[in-house]
User: Which sequence fits this backbone?
């Protein structure tokens, strides 16, 4: 009943694609989160008016489809800047900024969720702005922001499938290559989906674990 | 000594302090009473520089609070404040709440900070709650923890902003007892309160605030038994 031409080598090929997906996602989420924290803090500190240029810049990354961003960024780097950057580099760059734009909003929401009186209490004990941020605001904001951040990280992982347009052969592109060759689309997509699930599951579980632990405080 | 000299403070168009003059000597307990919107809570947040002022001066031991050159973080170490709203750090245990500032601000070692914290927590009756998270505490316990947290910085002055106003009635007593104990130990305190009999008991002087002005100040006997200002009279009549 069930017969497939999929070989062990093909599975290794898929696993390599999955590896690229993981690396692109990891780099983008790490850089995007660091930038997102910086942008989010700047937005809170400067207020709506002063941070308007930054907000506009981030809104562009949030509202233009990622596919278009990737194609345009690639063209910009190659034709305008005349730089020979790899598709992988461009993919990570665009995805990082894309992640940072969403992350900045999450960070801002998390910081705003810390009650003013809690921060006043910290400052009234002689803590500096930095100490207040580090020991009070960030730990509390993290608890608020974590579920959204996990959602963002999982979303970025799936969105990373689009980096094939800058010639990066990640998991979905690898699957498409095999589909073209083996003509078994449903079976291969099932395997591809399983790969995505295996990559996401630990992160989702880890988020659930942290939420549970913190709710016991 | 805290010297408040002709202090004015506005929120936007609204002037909430219209030239306040008040000196509080070392070891003195001054309570501030008055209706809501009289500016009494605002005065406290101005004293430790949490709020800027429009004009006038506040001096704490001769240091001008709102001068540009003043290191507010340093100054605040000697002025403890406890607010009306509960303000525990919810991600830290009771012990960690109290040791955080001594360790990070004063650079105290863990053991030393914990010994001091334990002393103050015992003092306010929370010696059995060291490892508890604040969300598990009652409102009264949270306020007592906030008092211990402020005391752990060894402040010279303590400011209390309606610390019992957000409490269930049956929890007010335990917090007032703690405040009374501090007063008897000679702590210099400025308290904003709605608890009149408490104010009468602990205060050296009581100030009545009305619409941003200190309408009257005197000993508890003077102010409560023989109020001079008509607004004081009608206020006291209304709360009795």
Assistant:
């Amino acid at each position: 009943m069930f017969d497939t031409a999929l070989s062990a080598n093909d599975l290794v090929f898929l696993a390599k694609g999955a590896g690229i997906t993981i690396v692109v996602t990891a780099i983008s989420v790490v850089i995007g989160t660091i930038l997102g924290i910086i942008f989010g803090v700047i937005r809170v500190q400067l207020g709506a008016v002063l941070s308007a240029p930054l907000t506009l810049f981030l809104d562009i990354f949030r509202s233009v489809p990622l596919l278009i961003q990737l194609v345009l960024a690639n063209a910009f780097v190659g034709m305008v800047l005349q730089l020979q950057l790899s598709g992988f580099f461009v993919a990570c760059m665009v995805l990082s900024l894309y992640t940072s734009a969403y992350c900045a909003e999450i960070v801002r929401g998390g910081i705003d969720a810390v009650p003013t009186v809690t921060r006043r209490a910290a400052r009234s004990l002689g803590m500096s702005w930095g100490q207040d941020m580090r020991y009070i605001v960030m730990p509390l904001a993290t608890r608020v922001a974590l579920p959204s951040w996990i959602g963002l990280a999982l979303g970025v992982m799936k969105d990373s499938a689009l980096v094939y347009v800058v010639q990066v052969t990640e998991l979905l592109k690898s699957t498409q290559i095999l589909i073209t060759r083996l003509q078994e689309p449903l079976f291969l997509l099932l395997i591809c989906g399983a790969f995505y699930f295996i990559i996401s599951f630990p992160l989702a579980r880890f988020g659930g674990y942290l939420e549970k632990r913190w709710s016991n405080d | 000594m805290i010297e408040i000299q002709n202090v004015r403070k506005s929120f936007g168009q609204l002037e909430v302090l219209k030239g306040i003059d008040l000196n509080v000597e070392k070891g003195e307990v001054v309570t501030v009473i008055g209706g809501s919107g009289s500016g009494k809570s605002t005065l406290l947040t101005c004293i430790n520089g949490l709020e800027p002022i429009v004009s006038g001066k506040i001096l704490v031991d001769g240091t001008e609070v709102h001068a540009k050159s003043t290191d507010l973080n340093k100054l605040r170490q000697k002025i403890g404040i406890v607010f009306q709203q509960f303000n525990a750090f919810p991600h830290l245990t009771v012990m960690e709440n109290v040791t955080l500032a001594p360790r990070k601000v004063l650079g105290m070692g863990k053991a030393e900070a914990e010994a001091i914290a334990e002393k103050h927590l015992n003092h306010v009756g929370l010696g059995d709650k060291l490892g508890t998270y604040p969300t598990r505490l009652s409102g009264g316990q949270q306020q007592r923890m906030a008092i211990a947290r402020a005391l752990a910085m060894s402040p010279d002055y303590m400011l209390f902003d309606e610390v019992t106003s957000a409490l269930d009635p049956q929890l007010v007593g335990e917090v007032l007892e703690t405040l009374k104990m501090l007063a008897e130990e000679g702590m210099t305190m400025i308290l904003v309160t709605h608890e009149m009999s408490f104010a009468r008991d602990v205060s050296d002087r009581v100030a009545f605030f009305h619409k941003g002005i200190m309408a009257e100040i005197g000993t508890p006997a003077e102010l409560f038994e023989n109020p001079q200002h008509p607004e004081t009279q009608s206020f006291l009549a209304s709360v009795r």
User: Anything to note?
Assistant: The CA atoms of residues 184 and 202 of chain B lie 8 Å apart.
